[in-house]
Design brief:
Length: about 100
Amino acid sequence: MAGGMPVCVIGKTGVGYCAICRVWTTGRITSGSDDCLIAGSGVARDSDTVKASCGHIGYIHASMTTKKINGKGIARLSDVFTGDFTGVLIDGVQTVAVG
């Protein structure tokens, strides 16, 4: 995709390791912007959350820091999240990219 990486929004998927449950699992982005939407879903930003299927949480570390929404960097495909649930975002909006 020319011009950047796909943007991640609420409901998109991450995969990683839950240190509490000691399992590899998937999760979904559960927080994002209330006023910047793509197809009705809030754009995920730095420090927004990814909730594992077991219920534990990770916090997104957005790699896009030069373009911001509500003062926070934009989360994109392949960005990482850390916390009790640690991993990488594997699903983004393929028609919307920033870079």
